[in-house]
Amino acid sequence: MIKFCATGGVMSKNTDVNAKQFTFQEMEAIVDEAHNHGMKVAAHAHGLEGIKTAINAGVDSVEHSSFIDEETIMLAIKNDVFLSMDIYVSDYILGEGALNGILEESLEKERKTGRLQRENFRKAVNLGAKITFGTDAGIFEHGNNAKQFKYMVKWGMTSLQAIQASTIVAADLLGINNIAYIKEGYYADIIGVEDNPIVNIEALENVTFVMKDGSIIINQL
Predict the structure, then answer these.
(1) Which of 51, 60, 100, 135 could potentially form a cystine with 145 if both were Cys, beta carbons 3.0 to 4.6 Å apart?
(2) How many CA atoms lie within 13 A of 21 on its CB side?
(3) Which fold does the domain 2-180 belong to in CATH?
(4) Per-residue pLDDT tens for 136-145?
(5) Beta partners for residue 45, in sequence order
(6) What is the 8-class DSSP label of residue 96?
(7) DSSP labels for 125-167?
(8) How far is CA 16 from CA 21, 33, 141, in A?
(9) How far is CA 171 from CA 71, 130, 132, 164, 174, in A?
(10) In angstroms, rounded to a whole number, what is the distance separating the alpha carbons of residues 85 and 99?
(11) Domain extents in the chain
């Protein structure tokens, strides 16, 4: 998979989250060349026009999708495009991030983006979009990505949908057909937690059992 920036970013200095950074023809060329080499294409896009253009150019997924509207959600569904909406990271940026040196420029952009992204996440869930688990890895400390689950549930998903977003939906996006299910012929990559995540989604924040390819790596159950 490759990723390109269709719009400016919250954490990118001197960029506008609503401004497109490529024309349709340029995006289409990126997608065509990547697909010709058997690669998936993800577009970083906050602004609506950038999202629309990326979808029409044929990307496989749109990262962030902050200012997406209902019409464009339906366009994504029609074109079989996945949405990856990192709705936890806003709290980190405006909380711990602000205490750890994130620039005021980025904080101001996040204040204008985070809440609307969450509201549009709910719309996308209700309309039946393919939403995959994405956390904007690298913004917060490694190992905390499971905090995203409770936000996905708070903003409209069932616990099962949130778990599927991080497993079978993600595998579908990547085109990998031997992971994400517990069944014969698939990699035996399994985690265990001490509570039922369907009832308590936050249980996934404390993984106490890890099996990798059939071998137990950690067992604290």
Answers:
(1) 135
(2) 17
(3) TIM Barrel (3.20.20)
(4) 988 888 889 9
(5) 64
(6) I
(7) HHHT--EE----TTSS-TT-GGGHHHHHHHTT--HHHHHHHHT
(8) 10, 27, 26
(9) 26, 12, 9, 10, 5
(10) 24
(11) 2-180, 188-221
